[in-house]
């Protein structure tokens, strides 16, 4: 038996629409702040205070203190800064790779 492309497309869409069988993962507070950090930082850039953002999150069903939000947000920002790549020329000893290689060759 042969099938048409449109039949295959309909089946693909139907399969794609099936929800995940795995249960939804629950976030702790730090993970929630990390997940929401782009929106929180955007609010800060538009002039909203941490206190106002914490109050809005609490009103929305995510109770969090201003100090906790500030701490978790700073952890999230630090995590992003730590992931810098070392330059191609640097080595563990701090010398450029070309200088170390030149000594080995000569």
In round numbers, the mean pLDDT is 83
- Share of residues in strands: under 5%
Number of strands: 0
State the distance separating the first and last CA atoms.
72 Å
Give the structural class. Answer: mainly alpha
The ordered string of helix (H) and strand (E) elements is HHHHH
- Any low-confidence stretches, pLDDT <50, length ≥5? none
Shape: elongated
Helix content: 55-70%
Q: Round the Cα radius of gyration to an integer and report it.
A: 25 Å
**In this structure, how is the largest beta sheet organized?**
none
Q: Tell me the number of helical segments per DSSP (H or I, 4 or more residues long).
A: 5
Question: Can you characterise this structure?
Answer:
There is one protein chain. With 106 residues, this protein is mostly helical. The chain has a domain at 25-79. It is built from five helices and no strands. α2 crosses α4. The chain starts with a helix and ends with a helix. 7% of the residues are buried.
What key attributes describe this structure?
single chain, 106 residues, mainly alpha, 0% strand, elongated
Quick recap of the structure?
The chain is mostly helical.
Question: Helices and strands in order, then pairings?
Answer:
Blueprint: H1 5-16, H2 29-45, H3 50-59, H4 66-82, H5 97-105
